[in-house]
Amino acid sequence: MSRSNRQKHNTASVKRQKKTAVRPAAIKEKNSIIVLVIAAAVLLIALFRIHSEDILHGTNDIFSDYSESGEIAEFETATVTAVLNEEIKTDEAAEGAYVGTQELSVVVKSGRYKGETMVVKNFFGPLYGVPVSAGDGVTITVKTHSGGEHTATVYEFNRIPILTVFLIIFFFVIVLVGGLKGLKSLVGLIITFICLFAVLIPLLLKGAPTILTTFIVCAYISLVSFTVLGGVHRKTVSAFLGTLAGTCLAMIFGLAIQHFAKIDGLRLEDAEPLLQLRYNGGVIGIRGLLVAGIIISALGAVMDVAMSISSALEEIHAANPSLSRRELFRSGMNIGRDMTGTMTNTLILAFLGGEFTLMIFLFARELTFFHLLSTAFISLETISGISASIGMILSIPLTALISSALIRGKGKFFLSGK
Length: 418
Fold this sequence. Notes:
Elements: H1 3-57, E1 71-91, E2 97-108, E3 117-124, E4 137-145, E5 150-157, H2 160-205, H3 210-230, H4 234-261, H5 271-279, H6 289-319, H7 325-354, H8 356-364, H9 369-374, H10 376-407
Helix pairs in contact: 1-2, 1-3, 2-3, 3-4, 3-6, 4-6, 4-10, 6-7, 6-10, 7-10
């Protein structure tokens, strides 16, 4: 072979190698775009269907603008311009908390009365409200009567500016430490909030099946989050399927314990206001809220475990491609066992921490341990923690099994490499 022919042959070989190397990444990116476009279309359609009536007609299915007394209550932002009068004292039994009233002059910053100066009352005590000063932002409740006259009171101190600052710091820290992955996780977090607050809650308020709807929305959240973080790759596919299986098992165990313990969402601490909604014509399914909460709470932990195992098995396979499916599965189980203790503690402590003040109160009543565990509130937290933990633990072997099967599989759809 002549020198020129060898050069042509080497050039063609290099081009083929580059094409082979680029092709998997290109296919992965294409599949990721397709999944995300379909997911975005589904979300937009859901948002339009859910909120179209309110957008087009300005109506609300549950609340009426005017109460039976003929008044409308609106929450608006305002700035305190002056403290006209105040009576403040401290409550020593409440560790020096302030108790009293203030008469304030405020300028309304939003709504139909924007720019208007009002004189409002601010009531506060150990469990509600805080005293404010000139220049502070507040949220006020403006009541407009059917005749047109209106009055206002301070609802709460406006904490949105300080929360916004800390939210920006939170975003900055995530991006600073996580880089591009951190930025992608923020996108996933935003999508999670949209799905929960703009899709799930409105659907439940409109009477959608509580448990099934929650499970579908959580499955959607995990699909989009994994696709945004890692694209369509066998690592993310394994993590998604493992998450789906683990969350489903948490739901099943939650339903079983709920049935045998004879307790459901009606016994939740904040169920009474929702029951009032049903008395006023609302259609939300309250009984399923206990299991719905279990699904949502378990989702984060299960996603974390599933992604950790599938990612670790990919690294193990890359380091030693000769490992069999059984050996990969065994490695996944070893990794999962190390995670079990800490993740279970995380879930149980998260549930118990949410009811820490209640537990202190119950202990102060000197209830026996048997009586304590039989109370509805402690039983609810125990059921939630156990069910979510079972789903998380069982997601370990399921993810290891799925991931090892896909790694040793021959399908072209599940791309190899990162």
